[in-house]
Automatic annotation (TrEMBL):
Residue stretches making up the HD domain: 63-199
Organism, scientific name: Aquabacterium soli
Family that this chain belongs to: Belongs to the dGTPase family. Type 2 subfamily.
Protein name: Deoxyguanosinetriphosphate triphosphohydrolase-like protein
Alphabetized PROSITE patterns for the sequence: HD (PS51831)
Matches recorded under PANTHER family: DEOXYGUANOSINETRIPHOSPHATE TRIPHOSPHOHYDROLASE-LIKE PROTEIN, DEOXYNUCLEOSIDE TRIPHOSPHATE TRIPHOSPHOHYDROLASE
Coiled coil: none
Alphabetic keyword roster: Hydrolase
MF-aspect GO terms: dGTPase activity
A GO BP entry: dGTP catabolic process
């Protein structure tokens, strides 16, 4: 695999918190990816949802299918840019490991429950999963991933938490949030691939659900452009085939746009290695026109799908499940698994326990503890 000078080279990795003997057949980023795929948290993603809850249909995206789509998009772009595909894949597959059940509704509710106890950030929770909560190895907690994989997983971080991370790990992954520098180009790429995948599959899931119609997308120039492109080539196509082909064309053009815009940014700033790329402005990017089109699409989805009355109703019930589970476990810690019930930091233990749940396990636990069936 050819790597550009500004890519993350495995032989120049900043290493693991606990040094390990190199593997004879896999580089360090390949080992990261394999550890993530075999983790318990990764398997749980199949029953954690995005917009639509698990019981609402088998064909809607889950955190697992979303992560696979981000990895596929990321690897395609990385190959053209000479970035490290293995690192991109590892970051993409791990980036949602800390997400709660019920999508953003669960995350927001846990943050409210934890307001007096340090709050809850799903990106920081993903880091907690890979650094501490996974229990697979005799010698240490977590997965002991490389600095580069951990850096990519921590997409966002409040200044307060960045300062705490810096105190625990001087010069580590919290430093860039304090200095205003960037993560690796592979991490930047995963951030953008995440956005591209989100927009595309939420169009598909939104129409499939019946909450939005193809006709409503007349107000979204980016989608209309590719829909009309499909109709010019296939005038008689309708329904699902029209939707799928329009999304396919939009995805392809966004990939090409990122490749071209990023090549231009790299040529302008000319980073000679991965560390110098971190000190540049964000280099993995859309062109200005595509950025505007993507932003308009996100605004449309926010208004017409994420704030749809039916989604709002489901969100309220999901928030009730999370808040009542939190209260129940704080009052009765022994209702949690023993490893969590015995911890000294009770509120963080409860947040960790709930965040690790799948949608359906959270619903079963809520019904067991409260006698209510909300869905």
């Amino acid at each position: 695999m050819w790597l550009a000078p500004y890519a993350s080279h495995p032989d120049k990795s900043k290493g693991r918190k606990r040094p390990e003997t190199p593997d004879s057949t896999r580089n360090c980023f390949q080992r990261d990816r394999d550890r993530i795929v075999h983790s318990t948290a990764f398997r749980r993603l199949v029953y954690k949802t995005q917009v639509f809850l698990n019981h609402e249909g088998d064909l809607f995206r889950t955190r697992l299918t979303h992560s696979l789509e981000v990895a596929q998009l990321g690897r395609s772009i990385a190959r053209s840019l000479g970035l490290n595909e293995d690192l991109v894949e590892a970051i993409a597959l791990a980036h949602d490991l800390g997400h709660t059940p019920f999508g953003h509704a669960g995350q927001d509710t846990l943050n409210e429950c934890m307001a007096a106890h340090g709050g809850f950030e799903h990106n920081l929770q993903s880091l907690r999963v890979i650094d501490a909560l996974e229990e697979r190895y005799p010698a240490y907690d977590g997965l002991n991933l490389t600095f580069e994989a951990r850096e990519g997983v921590l997409k966002h971080c409040s200044r307060r938490n960045a300062e705490l991370l810096e105190a625990q790990e001087p010069g580590g992954i919290g430093r860039r949030f304090l200095e205003g520098t960037q993560p690796s180009l592979e991490a930047q790429l995963c951030n953008l691939a995440d956005e591209i995948a989100y927009n595309a599959h939420d169009i598909d899931d939104g129409v499939r659900s019946g909450l939005v119609t193809l006709e409503q997308f007349e107000s979204v120039p980016l989608f209309v452009h590719f829909r009309d492109e499909t109709l010019r080539e296939y005038p008689d196509v309708r329904g699902r085939r029209l939707l799928f082909d329009s999304i396919r064309r939009m995805l392809s053009q966004q990939v090409y746009d990122v490749i071209d815009a990023t090549r231009g940014a790299i040529a302008e700033h000319m980073p000679v290695n991965a560390d110098q790329a971190r000190r540049c402005p964000p280099l993995v990017r859309f062109s200005p026109g595509m950025r505007e089109g993507s932003t308009q699409l996100k605004r449309f989805l926010f208004k017409e799908l994420y704030r749809h009355p039916q989604v709002n109703e489901t969100t309220l019930r999901a928030k009730q499940v999370i808040s009542e589970l939190f209260a129940a476990y704080v009052t009765q810690p022994r209702e949690m698994q023993a490893g969590f019930a015995e911890r000294d930091d009770l509120h963080r233990a409860v947040a960790d326990y709930i965040a690790g749940m799948t949608d359906r396990f959270a619903l079963r636990e809520h019904e067991r503890l409260t006698g209510q069936r909300l869905f």
